[in-house]
Amino acid sequence: MAKTKTTTRRTKASRAAWARIKLLAMDVDGVLTDGRVTISSDGTEAKQFSILDGLGLVRLMRIGVPVAWISGRASGSTTARATELKIPHLIQGRIDKITALQELATQLGFSREECAYIGDDIIDVAAIGWAGVGVAVPDGMPTAIKAASYVTRRAGGFGAVREVCEQIASAKGLTIEA
Question: For residue 120, how many other CB atoms are within 10 A of its CB?
Answer without folding.
Answer: 29
